Amino acid sequence: MPDTLTVAKRIMLDFAARTGLEPVSERPKRYLWTDAFAVCNLLELHRQTRDTEWRDLTLRLVDQVHTTLGRHREDDSRTGWISGLPDAEGRLHPTRGGLRIGKDLPERKPAEIYDDQLEWDRDGQYYHYLTKWMHALNRVSRVTGDPKFNTWALELANAVHERFVYVPPAGGRKRMYWKMSLDLSRPLVTSMGMHDPLDGLVTYLELSEAAGDFGEPLRRHDLSGQIADMAAMTRGLALATDDPLGTGGLLFDANRVARLMVRGTPGLAEILQDVLEASLLGIKSFAAGGTLTIPAGYRLAFRELGLSIGLLGASDIRDVVTNVPGLPDRAAAEGTCEALVRFIPLGEEIGRFWTDRKNQMTPGWNEHLNINSVMLATHMLPAGFLAI
């Protein structure tokens, strides 16, 4: 049986070929969420093999995402960068207008009637996709030592925050739109993602810390106001979910929060405990639901793999928590971490199930082939995604 690294290499090379990355296509198929995970996988393959071809493939993918999803669609009457910048300036600042999702259908026009089902297939901008891309860009800076990618992530954070975050007409706490139009001029879905403020808070802190490490001046890209917005929105949120992908995202955030605290980021102790407890509730709910006994044709691989990726970092969270300064209830945090670690075999079971080729021979696997396969590779190479 091939080893994990060999399988991950094959998955990523197949993905590169299917989506027009290698060999290069004039019309590559880019999708922001999948590409963010793919960047982290390619970086980890470079780290483990020291083969510069994986690094070069990473940089080519970043460029393709920006030149494809940072520009208007071919079926749009508008052309050029969605930021509205002239071509040369847009290439220097490719994230200043945000980035398209990469959905098959064009965004809903202002006069079109909203259709809940159809909206899933329409383009636009998702905040939680954008934060994944910010994280991926930051990882490129960390691995290559080039601060340019972190700067692009900071520019992206600044560009989208002011459009997604708003004060309700009746006043009160700020909220977020879940989905915005390509040009960020109007909301397409007005509800708020339950984890978007938390994800934004942790991502902004990650970017700011990295910028400081690179010695980059933050005056133009200061996120202190945005961080305050996200902290206020996160406070008191009910974070627990029975969605495995959402719970995996909570574990990812918990991992980053713990690492940031060890590096001296203040004010995160209460958030860490809340996220750990919500993660444990979500995992217990998933485990009790019997999903793992259901045939492959009735399951969504990428949602389960999101949980498995988060679980594979549980030991790291536990190890970090023992060194986190200033925890108000260290015993409770350590107890929650120990409970999370006991579910690592569940994550491993998910990975084994979806690695089995017979479980990949379903319409659901092939309908979401790119996201399923790339996240399976992330399960095999979790360190590349979970690092900050």
Helices and strands in order:
Layout lengths: L3 H15 L13 H18 L2 H18 L17 H6 L23 H4 L5 E2 H18 L3 H17 E2 L8 E2 L2 E2 L6 E3 L6 H18 L10 H11 L9 H19 L6 H20 L12 H11 L2 H8 L8 H12 L2 H12 L7 H5 L1 H12 L1 H5 L2
Antiparallel strand pairs: 1-4, 2-3, 4-5
Account of the 3D structure:
The structure is a single chain. With 388 residues, the chain is mainly alpha-helical. It has helices spanning 4-18, 32-49, 52-69, 87-92, 116-119, 127-144, 148-164, 196-213, 224-234, 244-262, 269-288, 301-311, 314-321, 330-341, 344-355, 363-367, 369-380, 382-386, and strands spanning 125-126, 165-166, 175-176, 179-180, 187-189. The longest helix is centred in the C-terminal third of the chain and has 20 residues, at 269-288. It is 59% helix and 3% strand. It is built from 18 helices and five strands. The strands form two sheets. The chain has a three-stranded antiparallel sheet with strand order 1-4-5. Strands 2-3 form a two-stranded antiparallel sheet. The model has no long low-confidence stretch (mean pLDDT 95). It starts with a helix and ends with a helix. It has a domain at 238-388. Helix 1 crosses helix 2, helix 7 packs antiparallel against helix 8 and helix 10 packs parallel to helix 12 (301-311).
Briefly say what this structure is.
This protein is mostly helical and 388 residues long. It has a domain at 238-388. It has 18 helices and five strands.
> Over the alpha carbons, how many angstroms does the gyration radius reach?
20 Å
Query: H/E series, N to C?
Result: HHHHHEHHEEEEHHHHHHHHHHH
The backbone outline, from C-alpha atoms, is: globular
Structural class: mainly alpha
Spatial gap, N to C terminus: 32 Å
Share of residues in strands: under 5%
